[in-house]
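Task 17 of the worksheet. Students: predict the tertiary structure of the chain below and write it out as structure tokens. Keep your answer in the requested format; marks are given for formatting as well as content.
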Amino acid sequence: MARLILLFATVLLSGTVAAQQGTATPAAQAKPDTGLTILDQLPVRNQIPLLDNRFRIDDGVDSITLVFFRRQGTASVVLVRPDGSKVFYNTAKDHNMRWHDAATYDLIEINNPMPGPWQAVGRILPESRILVLTDIQLQVDPLPPALMVGETFKLTARLMDGDQVVNARDFREILTLQVLFISTNNKEQDNYGRGLAEVASFRDDGRGYDASARDGIFTGEINLTFGAGEWIPRYVLKTPLYSRELEQPPVIIAPAPVQLVFEQATKAESPHQLSFHAVSAEVNLNSLLFQGVVRYPDGEMLQFSLTDPAEAKVLAVANKGAGSYLVDVSVFGQMQDGREFVLNLPQERFLVMLQAQEAPALTELPPELQQPVTPVIEQPEPFPWGLVILSNLLILGLGATAIWLVITGRGFSALLFWRKKNVPAAAKAMPGATKSNAASSAKPTQAKEKDDILDLSLPDD
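Model answer:
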């Protein structure tokens, strides 16, 4: 059996007090905007009478969603199942339920509910009825053909119950339509690998493009500023418990058909030039109109509009010196097939560098400065090549000498070759007696040294 969504709706009649006193209240009196108002034009087949907060669920229902509106600040309702068991907010998961507790309502989803009479216990608003909605679907208008980057257009979506629009007065707090564009990851397109782009989020609140609040119709503005390529439009309607999704066939978003060219002035007193060029053959060139704002580096703004088709699309921008010039442009035009379009081009930034100042003429200088000046060329001092060569030779000589002393094992005195050793004449005459004399002379010396040592030891006694 198709999924059923059961909305328990509250209708406060302005004559509640009078009814309690046994008097009728005129139907012309205004009804307070509280609860989910059931309009008179809703079909009778979708309405179920509510007696003492009781309602009945038929056999074979796979899933059902209940909305109970209650007084501000009161506790959540309590459900009493046909077998007499009670279900509270904190025990909903144990009974295969999902429960969203808000300040003024309870939104409950029951999977495979028990058939039979149910009852809701709580501070539920009086004079209530039950509205049963079946076959809930999301319907979205088709997108315009030949989309372009920066294009802005109005989009409308509807929450349908069969062939009629769902009219939920209090769903302005819980119903949100999200518009997504998903890349097809086509390698031949510019958006390859871009993933997902969140384009817009609509609410049925009567603001912006939405004509009427809480009428089940979502209307908003789509601005295609996320890049060219092949995209899949996806629409998601979210509530705290469930969602509805819709995908449309892939669409191609072409690059912007208009290109801005900024020409920097060559002189400080001359203005810059900003020109607009059409780069797409699908656009009617004679139908293009431009409107925008130029923000100067000093903070001032210039609002402009180019609306004459016969004139060249060129704008003179005042030269405010170096800095960034920001340009926001809206384009209004017509395609070759007659479709009207509006483009909000991405903000363009043009950087102007600091211009060099012209030097004063020579005739304006003082006479003493106008005389030609002969440049003085200083001759460089000659390089001392001789000193460098001698220093290198000295270093090489010292190094060679040190290496020779290490290899031969001789001392530094060996270099003093002009000095000779002094040998006694007696030693020269008797070379053989030299050793014996030396030995004999050494013995008395040793004996003398022994005599000089005092014996300080004590006797054994």
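Marker's comment: Residues 385-408 form the longest helix (24 residues). The two ends are 136 Å apart (CA to CA).
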